[in-house]
Automatic annotation (TrEMBL):
Transmembrane segments: none
Organism: Streptomyces yunnanensis
Keyword Flavoprotein belongs to the record: yes
Domain of life assignment: Bacteria
Protein name: 2-polyprenyl-6-methoxyphenol hydroxylase
InterPro entries in the cross-refs: FAD-bd, FAD/NAD-bd_sf
Keywords: FAD, Flavoprotein, Monooxygenase, Oxidoreductase
Record-level Gene Ontology MF annotations: FAD binding; monooxygenase activity
Length: 408
């Protein structure tokens, strides 16, 4: 420990990848500052339930202090199935498929966690390091430093800048200006519904122990994932880590409606102008004729919890020269949500980068460490992008098959 060089690492973005990296670096004694665009951790509730597979779980174990990892496990969904079950829109089974890197599972390997809860856990102990309401808009590099440019006109300097600022990354735009994300044409309409006892009793059992996919002949699918914490959050935090405060979170069913380009869920103009109430009505209309409990779940959702995601992905760029700026997560390899691996890959990035940085023993070794990380990240990160597109195509094939069956 004594011969480790003291690095100052600047991180753009306080999503799960950026916070995981910050926790790992802080534990290793490196100086870290995280700049987050939103004013508070509660300002962006989008995403709701995150699937955590073995890769993501191992990365969290590597990055988080032991007590925070225990709190993550205690507040996660009690789910151990790595297989996605696919049904028709009336919940008649069609097939099941493995998700993640290899489909193996133990109770810790595959679970679900509420996105806000996980971020609140990951913020614990980083209160001084995370600066909310400060958006990174650019940077300047010198041979031995990097200067971050913030939206309010201020700056900050460090040894390394990590862009963890999502699919619209300003850091990527400055580092790799020729790299563009591409719109797949797929739109996802997200929502969530509180699991009242009446609704819980009516929902099919497969929705509670795995992610379920329903395909409809009209040209769209539903993705369903329940979040049921093992214990109430406040009770769990008090028992595991009393210093951490977690917002209460009712049990809920997350749902996503999506479809192929050119189908009923691909009208970009419609999504750009629709209010949340209109999105909710569209979701209810789109599930009319589905299994009654699924339709009820959509109807009972709160319109304010509905939003649309344009699915964008990135093709792997040629290797670029390593320097004092690097990227992780959606900032470099955004992917379709179909495979459920986006957050897990971002967490893997954080663990891999932290491992390389904490091994640096001399300032001259920093760029070599970044190069080693980027070489590794490009390999598995863009393999995950390809995997997500593969799952998306499988769902598209199921939609087309369902349409043919209906026409017979």
């Amino acid at each position: 420990m004594g011969d480790r060089v003291t690095l100052r690492v600047l991180i753009a973005g306080a999503g799960v990848g950026g916070l995981a990296l910050a926790q790992a670096l802080r534990q290793a004694g490196l100086a870290v500052t995280v700049f987050e665009r939103t004013p508070t951790v509660r300002a962006d509730r989008r995403g709701y339930r995150i699937n955590i597979n073995r890769v993501g779980g191992d990365a969290l174990a590597a990055c988080l202090p032991k007590e925070l990892f225990r709190l993550y496990l205690a507040t996660s969904n009690d789910e151990a199935r790595a297989r996605v079950a696919v049904f028709d829109h009336r919940m008649h089974p069609l097939y099941a498929t493995d998700v993640g890197i290899d489909g193996t599972a133990t109770p810790r390997d595959h679970t679900g966690v509420n996105r806000l809860t996980l971020r609140q856990i990951m913020l614990a102990g980083l209160e001084r390091e995370v600066r909310f309401g400060q958006e990174v808009v650019g940077f300047e590099q010198t041979p031995d430093r990097v200067r971050v440019l913030l939206a309010d006109g201020s700056t900050a300097e460090g040894d390394l800048l990590v862009g963890a600022d999502g699919v619209g990354s300003a850091v990527r735009a400055g580092l790799l200006p020729d790299v563009r994300t591409r719109d797949t044409g797929v739109r996802c309409l997200w929502g969530r519904t509180t699991l009242s006892p009446a609704l819980r009793d009516r929902l099919p059992a497969p929705l509670f122990d795995r992610v379920a996919v329903t395909v409809a002949p009209q040209g769209h699918i539903g993705i369903w994932g329940a979040y049921r914490a093992r214990r109430p959050h406040a009770e769990t935090a008090a028992a595991v880590t009393p210093a951490v405060s977690l917002d209460p979170e009712p049990d809920y069913l997350m749902w996503v409606l999506s479809g192929e380009p050119g189908g009923p869920f691909a009208d970009e103009e419609q999504w750009r102008t629709a209010s949340q109430a209109e999105l909710h009505r569209h979701a209810a209309d789109a599930t009319a004729g589905w299994h009654p409990a699924l339709h009820r779940a959509v109807r009972e959702a709160v319109p304010e919890d509905c939003f649309v995601q344009n699915v964008r992905v990135a093709d792997q760029p040629p290797a670029w020269p390593a320097g004092r700026v690097t990227l992780l997560g959606d900032a470099i390899h955004p992917m379709s949500p179909a495979g459920g691996t986006g957050a897990n890959t971002a967490l893997r990035d954080a663990a891999a980068l932290a491992d390389k940085l904490t091994a640096v023993r001399h300032p001259a070794g920093l760029v070599s460490a970044v190069d080693a990380y980027e070489t590794e990240m490009r390999r598995y990160g863009f393999a995950a992008v390809a995997e997500s597109l593969h799952y998306g195509e499988r769902f598209a094939q199921a939609i087309r098959h369902a349409g043919k069956e209906t026409q017979r």
